[in-house]
Design a protein that fits this description.
Blueprint (H helix, E strand, L loop, with lengths): L1 H7 L7 H32 L2 H28 L2 H22 L7 H26 L2 H32 L4 H21 L13 H6 L5 H32 L2 H25 L5 H16 L8 H31 L8 H27 L4 H13 L1 H9 L25
Helix pairs in contact: 2-3, 2-5, 2-6, 2-7, 2-9, 3-4, 3-5, 3-9, 3-13, 4-5, 4-7, 6-7, 6-10, 9-10, 9-12, 9-13, 9-15, 10-12, 11-12, 11-15, 13-14
């Protein structure tokens, strides 16, 4: 493995830790892409209502930022590798719990969501920090690029493979199979983590200091407000579209094809966006991507069938990279030029996570309260239109961000990716 990666990296020095971190990232991507899309469908088939799935996702979005705060404190006081190990361990426990609870999963929906949120929180805090510490300026682009390839392959292969397995097997046997495979993959990731060199912590965890930095740094305040609106869209789009695809087709395999189309287009457009969107074009690209994401919604809003859903997948598969690549780069430029960025990068990542999940929780609570009073068939399209403007509204905040000449960034980490992010 090391020889293969070394041959692809030209004259770069590829360390043992970098290889193991890539392997852990690859196992994570395959495990999540293989199963997590279908957890929402699994819960729907048991409960048959949106409320159960909304509460499951609410558990994720409440516990993920809380865990980020705890993980940041541990990473500063103990060891980053231990935090990573906790993350993949909790993700293993999540899939083991789904297997053990089986047909009663919908009853324990909030507990399952909480376990997944804790796993995400520990894993992504540690992975982001370790990416920065293990890679060097000359290997960072290679690492992020190789990891992006692994994530894209997982996004294309995982859902369609899982959908095919579920479709070919008896009622719940297919779900049991893919959840078991994901559990094994995360168990392997836990074992891999023991091969990473320990990284002792140093410094104090100054979360409140960076939270209050909004009062002194207008760019930081603007980008955090933008992340709230990012979360507003993601909160309900993360599961509603998945359920609509399943209800329209009645087939997990069709859902896998939907994800294959989406991930395949995203893979191509992420490459193009990275290559052609220059720093001077970022704000226009964010506006263009936001407009395309909002416009794509109207292809499935008034009439819905599988053909229209595939068109929707094509549109957002192209739009999301146009939006995300400059948005993530701008976010890390803001952090990189902020005060104390070198020593308090963990705190900046934690605060960003808190704000994006605040938006997600607001979106989900609004969804739950609205559906408890009104007819879901009438109100869900209304809520999709309202929250679907989230990424478009981001431009209002980022257009006033001014950083001056862009130099070398102090913070360069890979944007986190989950299987349901690009909806």
């Amino acid at each position: 493995m090391q020889k293969i990666i070394q041959s692809m990296s030209k004259n770069m020095t590829i360390t043992r830790d970098l290889i193991f971190l890539l392997l852990i990232g690859g196992l994570y991507s395959l495990g999540i892409f293989l199963s997590n899309t279908f957890v929402n469908v699994y819960l729907w088939k048991q409960a048959g209502d949106y409320m159960t799935i909304a509460v499951y996702n609410l558990g994720i979005f409440i516990f993920q930022p809380l865990t980020f705060i705890i993980a940041g404190r541990i990473a500063k006081r103990v060891d980053r590798v231990i935090v990573l190990r906790l993350g993949v361990s909790f993700l293993s426990i999540f899939f083991l719990s789904v297997l053990l609870i089986a047909e009663h999963a919908s009853t324990f929906n909030f507990m399952l969501g909480s376990l997944l949120g804790i796993g995400y929180g520990f894993y992504w805090l540690a992975f982001n920090v370790l990416t920065f510490e293990i890679t060097e300026p000359d290997t960072r682009d290679f690492f992020n690029g190789f990891l992006g390839v692994l994530q894209s392959l997982g996004g294309m292969i995982g859902p369609v493979l899982a959908g095919s397995i579920i479709a070919r097997m008896a009622e719940n046997t297919g779900y049991t199979t893919i959840f078991t495979v994901s559990f094994i993959l995360f168990l392997c990731a836990v074992i891999m983590s023991f091969f990473l060199n320990r990284r002792q912590a140093e410094g104090k965890f100054e979360f409140k200091r960076i939270l209050k930095e909004r009062n002194h740094n207008k760019n930081w305040k603007r980008i955090l407000n933008a992340h709230v609106f990012q979360g507003l869209r993601e909160g309900i789009f993360l599961f509603v579209i998945t359920i609509w695809v399943f209800l329209t087709t009645g087939s997990e395999f069709s859902l896998g094809i939907f994800n294959l189309v989406l991930s395949g287009l995203s893979f191509v457009f992420y490459f193009l966006a990275t290559r052609f969107i220059k720093p001077a074009m970022r704000k226009r690209a964010i506006l263009t991507g936001g407009l395309l994401l909002f416009a794509a919604l109207f292809t499935i809003l008034f009439d819905i069938n599988y053909t229209l859903l595939i068109i929707y997948a094509v549109l957002i598969g192209a739009a999301y990279p146009i939006f995300t690549v400059p948005y993530v780069s701008l976010t890390y430029d803001v952090i990189g030029k902020a005060r104390f960025a070198k020593d308090l990068r963990i705190e900046y990542i934690v605060v960003r996570e808190l704000f994006v999940n605040t938006g997600r929780v607001i979106s989900l609570l609004t969804f739950i309260l609205t559906l408890s009073v009104f007819d879901p068939k009438i109100m869900i399209p209304v809520l999709l239109v309202i929250f679907g403007m989230g990424h478009l509204m981001i431009y209002i905040f980022v257009k006033d961000i001014h950083l001056g000449p862009t130099g070398k960034k102090n913070v360069m980490v890979k944007e986190q990716v989950t299987d349901e992010k690009n909806r």
